[in-house]
Every structure is written in C-alpha cells, then in structure tokens.
Specification:
This protein is mainly alpha-helical. The protein has three domains: about 140 residues, Orthogonal Bundle (Arc Repressor Mutant, subunit A); about 90 residues, HRDC domain (DNA polymerase, domain 1); about 100 residues, ATP-dependent DNA helicase RecQ (Arc Repressor Mutant, subunit A), CATH 1.10.10.1390. The protein contains 19 helices and five strands. Helix 9 packs across helix 10, helix 15 packs parallel to helix 19 and helix 17 crosses helix 19.
Length: about 350
C-alpha cells in the first residue's frame, strides 16, 4: 500500500475488511463473517449521511467524459458548504466510498487518479440513495497531548529573553522575527540549553546556515543565563543523527532543483500536498534555500507576489491564519504557505 492509501484506510469509517478486499480487487460478502465482531468501524458505526445529490453532482461534472481525473484536482475545485459541513475532507470521503462501492475505479498503475465505472454511469441514469459516514478524526486527542508536553518544558524567562534577541537581530536585518528562528526552535532552546555549536545544531528547525549566522549570539545569551540561574542541564538530550529523514530531505531538494511541479512531487511520494508543504517549510525554516520560483510563477502573478512579499516582510507573526484573515479570501492557505516558503528562502 502507498502511504496515502494507508492513511485513508486508517481514517476511513468504512468496514476494514470491505476496504481491504476492494483494494486487492476482491468481492465483499457481509454474510461470510460478522463484521461487528471483528472490525472497529463496524463495532462503532457512525451516523449515515445520504449524499445522493453530492455524488450525482460529482459524477456529472467531473466524470461524464470517461477520462481519468486526479483526485487532488477534483477535491480542490468542488463546492464547499460550511452549514452542512461539506468541505474538502468530506468530498474525499464521498470519493473513497464511491471507489469501494464500485461507482468509481482506480487504475492499478496510477493510484492518484480515478475514472467512472459502468455502475457509476448507471447511477447517473438512475440515481439512488447513497450513504456515507464521516471519517475518523484523531486530531483533537493529538492536539491536547502536544499542548501538555509543550507547557511542561518551556523556561518562560529564557524564552522571553530569546524572543527579545531574535527581534533585535531581525530588526537589524530588516526581516520578520520568524525568519531568524521559529518559536518552536526558541522553545527547544529553553529545554536543551545549548552551550556549543554542536549542541545548537541539535535544536529543532535549525540548520547549518542558521547556526553559522546566528548561533553564537544565542549561545552567548544561553550560557550567561545558565550561569546566572545555576541551571543544571538534563543528561537525557540526544543528538540528532542523519538517517532516513536526511535522505528524504535530500531527495525533495533534488526534485525541486529539477523544477518538478510540487503537486507531482506529492503524488509521486504518496503524500498529501499539505504534508509536502510542511516538509518544504521545515527545510527553509532551518536555513536551507529552495528555489520554487518556477512553481510560484505558475500560481501567482507579479502583482500578487509583490503584495505577499510586502506582507511577510512586515509581519511579525509566523501564523498563517493571520495572513488568511489579513487577505480575507484573496488567497487560500496553500497559496500563502507556498509563497512563504519562497519568501523565507529568498531572505534567509
């Protein structure tokens, strides 16, 4: 299974056995075994939602010509309905159910696209009720766990001093503070108390370039703070080692250097586009340059780029939601995140 397929399988509310049998091209018979005794989704069934109208709209508008369609391109352009909680995630759920029920089908050689089946054509001619359940959502539990860990390790006094130093450096270079270091990097410094260049390289989100540019100033402040407050460092801090993450990072940089479109990179790696953006952000936040001008020029014109450059240059916030509020629908989240990658690479 591709990573994306594994993720969809985990989040889907469809019977696990039914999903897997469909994936391997086998027929599903609910009478062979009792799913409710062996399947978490069947044991804890969610409310069913009739999406006959949405499915009919999907098939008529995107699949009437019998051609293969990229799943990502479909969901990006489908209409959202906030009142009825119909968003991109819910459209993906409808598509997943449609594939498992045989309305749509995937090409075994290309898991990123789908086409209409004979059953789908019959549905267009004779629409019937079609029920789905919303996907499993694990985000709330994860968020709470992250917040509790975060609160337990931050040295607030040192954190504030680091923020002041970051602001001073940023002002001297006419850059926004987050272009120096992100807040999660400052937080990591308050936990690890780096006193040497090698220790500073172990800070999350810090690459060789930023170590060379700013490391000595932050190390000097931290060493002074440790001495003044008689702080004893933890013996449990483990230095990072290069491995699979480093090779994946190098592969991604090479793909960008070859000017491969970002959506093609995400599809070839079997990951969501927003996951790819997170990887790109991690690279540029650490101080490594990435030239994605070839992609940015395709999605944003010169005036838009100038407007966004001015915003990110003047903004002190690294939170993309602030940019979304500022532009009030002029740009979507993907466009803002993509340009921020370009901006940080340009000014780093």
């Amino acid at each position: 299974m591709l990573l994306k397929e594994v993720s969809t399988f985990a989040e889907s509310s469809i019977s696990r056995r039914k999903y897997l049998l469909n994936y391997f091209g086998e027929k599903y018979d609910p009478n062979i075994n009792n799913d409710h005794e062996m399947d978490d989704n069947s044991k804890n069934a969610k409310d069913k939602i009739n999406v006959k109208d949405q499915l009919l709209f999907l098939l008529k508008n995107y699949f009437s010509n019998n051609k293969k369609v990229l799943i990502r391109e479909i969901t990006k352009n489908l209409p959202f309905d906030e009142k009825n909680e119909i968003d991109e995630k819910f459209w993906r759920t409808i598509i997943t159910y449609s594939i498992v029920e045989g309305i749509l089908e995937k090409d075994i050689s290309d898991f990123t696209s789908v086409k209409i089946s004979n059953s789908g054509k019959e549905f267009i001619s004779n629409p019937k009720e079609f029920y789905v359940s919303r996907d499993n959502d694990f985000s709330k539990t994860k968020k709470i766990e992250n917040q509790s860990v975060k609160a337990s390790v931050i040295d607030d006094d040192l954190f504030n001093k680091l923020k002041i130093l970051r602001k001073e450096i940023a002002k001297s270079k006419s850059l926004p503070p987050y272009a120096i270091f992100q807040e999660f990097s400052l937080e990591d410094m308050t936990y690890k108390y780096p006193e040497t260049i090698d220790e500073f390289k172990n800070i999350n989100g810090v690459g060789e370039g930023k170590v060379n540019k700013f490391g000595s100033q932050f190390i000097e402040l931290i060493k002074k703070y440790i001495q003044e407050n008689n702080i004893k460092k933890s013996d449990e801090i483990i230095l990072r080692t290069s491995g699979s993450k480093s090779s994946k990072k190098l592969s991604l940089i090479q793909n960008v250097d070859k000017k491969i479109p970002l959506d093609e990179i995400s599809e070839s790696r079997g990951i969501e586009f927003n996951v790819l953006l997170s990887e790109l952000e991690s690279i540029v936040f650490s101080g490594t340059k990435l030239n994605i001008d070839y992609y940015v020029d395709d999605i944003l014109d010169e005036d838009q780029q100038e407007e966004l450059h001015e915003y990110f240059l003047e903004s002190e916030s690294e939170d993309i939601s602030d940019a979304l509020k500022e532009f009030d629908g002029d740009y979507d989240e993907e466009e803002l995140r993509i340009f921020r990658v370009k901006f940080l690479s340009d000014v780093s």
